[in-house]
Amino acid sequence: MLSPRKLLSPGELLNPGELRLERRLVLASATFVATAVPVAVLAYAATHGWAPLHRLDSGVADDLHDWTVRQPHAVGFLEGVSTVLHPWVLRAATVGVVAGLLVRRQRRLAMWLGTTVVAAGLLGLVLKGVVARSRPVLPDPVAHAGGYSFPSGHALNSFVILVAFVLVVLPAIPRRWHAALWGAAAGAVLLVGFARVALGVHYLSDVVGGWLIGAGLLAVTVIAFETWRRDRGLRVPHVLDEGVDPAASRATAGSTGRGTS
Length: 261
Hints:
Strand content: under 5%
Radius of gyration: 20 Å
């Protein structure tokens, strides 16, 4: 009878440390899902039961709709933003980044990125079904979208994936460019959120909810990664300035055929 170790041995793709990392990431993501669902339900109840927030959602939706109707050229631009930064486009890009990390033998980083992005997609899908909020109904709509409204899948996934990309590439980027990189990611995320509300397919609270859920998910998976690093006796980096796994990224930058993860 083969031992568990022999079952995992072809190519030595995994080792016990990576298995511990995988379990931590899955457990951390599952824990966040379990806590995010009731929070999302409460947020949904507040948007329909708390008059000030309901007025804010409706007011912003009406004002931006009126602006968009008067700016027909803006509709094409905003639809283009929604298409270029569509969740499935970003997921396809993630597959390419994960494949590149695996080629460079940065398996820890590939595992973190892939797990985080998959968790974001599943979380958004589950929460939409649980909350079941209808999309805005506006006169003379300029765009249409199917499914439920809360949270915005574009907002949630663009936040998670673009921030995760930044955390992956930070170690390979000169420090003087870090602020510009973060600014570009933030600008893209904000533009996606604006586009979804201006096109009349989401309320403001849908977008903000997506951002908050994405931030929470990223925090959980980054913390899981840092906990694993501590258990291995590795230095825990300043994530926002050094990325998730700076030592491995710097060691493999510009090298081929040899891994450090």
